[in-house]
Structure formats: C-alpha cells, structure tokens
Amino acid sequence: MSIGLKDAVEAMEYDELMGIKIDLESGGFNIKKMITQKIREKEKKHEKKCAVCSSDIDSCRSSNYTLIFGPEDFKKKATFCGMDCLEYFIAKMRDMSYRKMESVPQKKEKIE
Ligand SMILES: [Zn+2]
Question: What three-state secondary structure class fits 70?
Fold first, then answer.
C-alpha cells in the first residue's frame, strides 16, 4: 500500500500531530530517526518491479539483484529481475559516465 504524506497526516489523531509538531520545533530528532530507520529497513528489500524491463519481481527467486548507489544522504535503489537486466543497467550507466567525461572540456594547448 502506498499513501502520501498528506494522507498519513490526515489519518493521524490530534495527540499524534501535536507530538510531531513538538518534535519538529525541537529539531525533529525523533522524526529523523524514525524515517532513517524505515529507509534502512526498505533498503534491504527488493523493489516490486525490475528497473530495466519493468517485469514484476518475484521475491522468492534467487536471481533478483538490488543495487544501491549514490551518496550516503541521497542513495538510489534499483532492482533487477536477472543478471541480463543488471548488466544492461551497468553498461548504460558506464556509457553515460563516459559521455559525461567526453563533454568535459579538455585542457587546451597553449597557442603561441
Ligand atoms: Zn528485468
């Protein structure tokens, strides 16, 4: 099930909302901790669909792969239904980073 933040807030009782408000006003330490914990929990699970071919991921299959990449505070996650989709994704990423390198202006030779 997927609900937005607005729906979650809508479903909360007055006391819960007050608790969150008080926490936010004092730096949001508890909320940050709660969200970080949930993210860690979800990082361990595969996504529901393959990032390459969009086929449904059968969580019982041993050929599933999940890749977590990016900086610590903005990690991305992608799940693949098999080695071929994972390889395709990596090849595409490699291709993109090569192209990025090519577009970086090269140090120019001094013209005399
Ligand atoms: Zn796939």
Answer: coil
Report the length, in residues, of the chain. 112
Whether residue 56 contacts residue 38, with contact meaning beta carbons closer than 8 Å, is answered with no
Let me know: does 79 contact 85? Beta carbons within 8 Å.
no
Distance, CA 51 to ligand 1 centroid (Å)?
A: 7
CA of 3 to the centre of ligand 1 (A): 26
The per-residue pLDDT for range 26-72, each reduced to its tens digit, is: 999 999 999 999 988 988 888 999 999 999 998 888 899 999 998 98
Query: How far, in Å, is the centroid of ligand 1 from the Cα of 54?
Result: 6
Q: Cα of 84 to ligand 1 centre, how many Å?
A: 7
